[in-house]
């Protein structure tokens, strides 16, 4: 079965706060009536503010635009699509065979993640005809499709 990932913060008092609770609840519905495994691990390398911008602005804007084109993806699906498009890696075996794989956005440093966002903004403007505002701009999002 497909794996779903969501970011959260654990307070000093041990309280869990999901960054995107609606998306989490949407994905949780897939598992109604099933036993599940919950794995906790620390993530890092860039600020929570940047992650909130990515998951709270970039992903929903692209998800809505894709939905309007008839492509229905979860937030994680949009994230996977963007990684496939912009974080491809070529691995070369000892016998010279090239294997293409998708990199992990969590392994990008601050500059690499900034470049990743800029590539997404450019692609969104050219391909989807939408503007993804810079992190410091105020914006209002329409309802998330589902």
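^ structure tokens above, recovered residues below v
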């Amino acid at each position: 079965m497909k794996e779903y990932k969501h970011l959260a913060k654990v307070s000093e008092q041990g309280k869990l706060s999901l960054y995107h609770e609606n998306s989490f609840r949407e994905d949780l519905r897939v598992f109604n009536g099933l036993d599940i495994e919950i794995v906790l691990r620390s993530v890092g390398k860039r600020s929570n503010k940047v992650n909130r911008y990515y998951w709270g602005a970039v992903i929903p804007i692209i998800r809505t635009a894709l939905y309007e084109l008839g492509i229905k993806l979860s937030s994680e699906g949009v994230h996977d699509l963007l990684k496939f498009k912009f974080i491809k890696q070529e691995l070369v075996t000892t016998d010279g065979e090239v294997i293409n794989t998708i990199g992990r956005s969590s392994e990008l440093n601050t500059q690499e993640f900034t470049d990743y966002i800029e590539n997404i903004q450019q692609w969104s403007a050219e391909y989807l005809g939408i503007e993804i505002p810079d992190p410091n701009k105020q914006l209002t999002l329409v309802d998330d499709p589902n």
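The mean pLDDT is 85.
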